[in-house]
Amino acid sequence: MQVEGNHITVQKAMTFCNPKEWVKLYADDLFKFAYSKVSDSALAQDLVQDTFLSGLQAMAQFRGDSSEKTWLLAILKNKIIDHYRKAAKTAVALDSITNSDSDPDHLFFNEKGHWHKEMAPKAWTHDANDHLNQNEFTRILRACMDKLTGIGKTLFQQKYLEEKKSADICKDLAITSSNYWVIIHRAKLQLRVCLEKNWFGN
Amino acid sequence: MKHHLHTLLPCCKEATLLVEKQLQQPLPLLQRIGLRFHLLYCYLCSRYAKQSKAIDQQLRALQTSAEPALDETIKLQWEVLIAEELKK
User: Fold this and answer.
1) Which among A24, A54, A162, B35 has the fewest CB atoms less than 10 Å away?
2) 3-state DSSP helix/strand/coil percent for chain A, to nearest 5?
3) Residue A86 buriedness (CB in 10 A; 0-12 / 13-18 / 19+)
4) Where are the domains of chain A?
5) Left, alpha or beta for A123 (phi > 0: left; psi -120 to 50: alpha)?
6) A residues 13-32 lying closer than 8 A (beta carbon) to B
7) CB-based contact (8 Å) between B80 and chain A?
């Protein structure tokens, strides 16, 4: 009975799954989706490749309840979540190792919590919403976002590229809400300085 | 009392954190008053608040901007890879 059941599943999988067509049919959409979540083209490619490989291994479990595309997309989503989990873990581990010495807040504020003169916000010469130079600004903004490190980068990407709710981000990455604000705050301080140096400063 | 006083008189580090928080959600009353008051007398944080809001708007717009296309050579590689795996 059991054997027969398996046999039917495999047969069904054979009729519904056609891996030879995967790249042609789904590669672009899967990549687009992955890129929108991680905003890193090389990483998005790796994730899609992993998705195809996992799909090949799991083909027998594919029941044809959903379309092949939906099924592959579900695998990809799990890959993306795994990636962010891993990133969050290493970032937290690194933060706890280096601890207060490299507390980025000291870069911006003194022990009383006041701005260091040289790191304080300067008046901007360009208007951030000046549409003439929008493309150039977007390019610099993306570059500055890429420069962010560790968990700050992860949070920013999830917040702004995925438009995830902060409560969901905290749950997915297992961080407290007060940690969330500290990390967002630090990342924004770094992003602001990067923009000031590369765009508004000249 | 001491706690409330602290909330009502945030330092720049705390005030800028509240600015970030307020960009995403409404603040509790005491924090809101504290931040408002701080921004009245601190021109640096007031400047930070304006700039941070502008950055926030640009970040939200990023979402809709174009993404790169997938390289054709990668697709070929994947097709070969899948064919190899199927042979196993």
Assistant:
1) A24
2) 80, 0, 20
3) exposed
4) 2-95, 99-200
5) beta
6) 19-20, 22-24, 27-28, 31-32
7) no
Question: Can you tell me the distance from the alpha carbon of A139 to that of A195, in angstroms, rounded to the nearest whole number?
Answer: 11
Round the average pLDDT of chain A to a whole number and report it. 79
CATH number of A99-200: 1.10.10.10
Three-state secondary-structure class, residue A85: helix
Does the reported pTM lie above 0.80?
Answer: no
> What are the beta bridge partners of residue A115?
A109
What is the CATH code for A2-95? 1.10.1740.10
ipTM for the complex shown: 0.73
Beta bridge partners of residue A13, listed in sequence order: none
CB-based contact B45:B12 (threshold 8 Å): yes
Residue tagged 């994730």 (tokens): A47
**Beta partners for residue A109, in sequence order:** A115
Top pLDDT among A92 and A97 is at A92
Chain mean position to CA A105:
24
- If you search the block for the tokens 């560790």, which residue do you land on? A150
CB contact under 8 A, B70 and A23: no
Angstrom distance (rounded) from CA B10 to CA B35: 7
Rounded distance between C-alpha atoms, residue A71 and residue A62, angstroms = 8
Alpha carbon distance B8, B27 (integer Å): 13
Cα–Cα distance between A156 and A84 in angstroms, integer? 12
